[in-house]
């Protein structure tokens, strides 16, 4: 585990593995990393927006739970982005298959389920408010 984390911060270690690939592949890998990082930042911004601007919901502490969930998910996406970047760069340099990942599907599922739960809470509040 520590070796993996060390690779995130030491680009020389990544460059010592295998052979130098076509730069277009490394740059594409970096663009993918940056896209994931933007997704993480958007989730963090969403969590802060929920905490600051969303009115209280009918379920006690739902707003806070949603905000914390978005913040944690944003942090997880950012950490996962750098890990995937390092594993992909290593595979490119070694001429191996790119690492498979279930993370995009899991992230989409978590966001979708969270949106449905929030929608149910908002509708419950609207029905109670009548």
From TrEMBL:
Transmembrane segments: 33-53, 65-82, 103-127
Membrane topology label: Multi-pass membrane protein
A Pfam cross-reference name: DUF202
Subcellular location: Cell membrane
Domain of life from the UniProt record: Bacteria
Alphabetical keyword list: Cell membrane, Membrane, Transmembrane, Transmembrane helix
InterPro entries per record: DUF202, IM_YidH-like
Annotated ranges, domain DUF202: 24-91
PANTHER family on file: DUF202 DOMAIN-CONTAINING PROTEIN (PTHR34187:SF2), FGR18P (PTHR34187)
Protein name in the entry: YidH family protein
Species the sequence originates in: Plantactinospora siamensis
């Amino acid at each position: 585990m520590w070796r993996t984390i060390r690779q995130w911060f030491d680009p020389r270690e990544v460059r010592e593995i295998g052979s130098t690939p076509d730069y277009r592949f490394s740059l594409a890998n970096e663009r993918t990393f940056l896209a994931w990082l933007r997704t993480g930042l958007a989730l963090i911004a969403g969590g802060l927006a929920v905490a600051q601007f969303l009115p209280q919901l009918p379920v006690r502490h739902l707003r806070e739970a949603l905000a914390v969930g978005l913040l944690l998910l944003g942090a997880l996406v950012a950490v996962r982005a750098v890990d995937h970047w390092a594993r992909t760069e290593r595979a490119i340099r070694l001429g191996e298959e790119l690492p498979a990942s279930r993370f995009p599907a899991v992230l989409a599922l978590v966001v979708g389920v969270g949106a449905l739960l929030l929608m149910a809470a908002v509708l419950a509040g609207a029905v109670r408010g009548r």
